[in-house]
Amino acid sequence: MGRLEGKIAIVTGGADGIGHAISEAMSREGAHVFVSDINDAKGAAFVEYLRGAGRQADYVHCDVAEDRDIAALIATAVDKTGRLDILVNNAAIAIGGMPVYEMTDEQWHRLIAVNLTSVFRGCKYALPHMIRQKHGSIVNMASAQGHIGLDGWTAYAGAKGAVMAMTRQMAVEFGPHNVRINSISPGTINTPMNEQVIADLGQHVARAWVKMHPIGRIGNPEEVAEAAVYLASDAAGFTTGIDLRVDGGLCVTPRFVPDLV
Ligand SMILES: NC(=O)c1ccc[n+]([C@@H]2O[C@H](COP(=O)([O-])OP(=O)(O)OC[C@H]3O[C@@H](n4cnc5c(N)ncnc54)[C@H](O)[C@@H]3O)[C@@H](O)[C@H]2O)c1
Question: Looking at the DSSP assignment, which residues form a beta bridge with residue 189?
Answer without folding.
Answer: 219
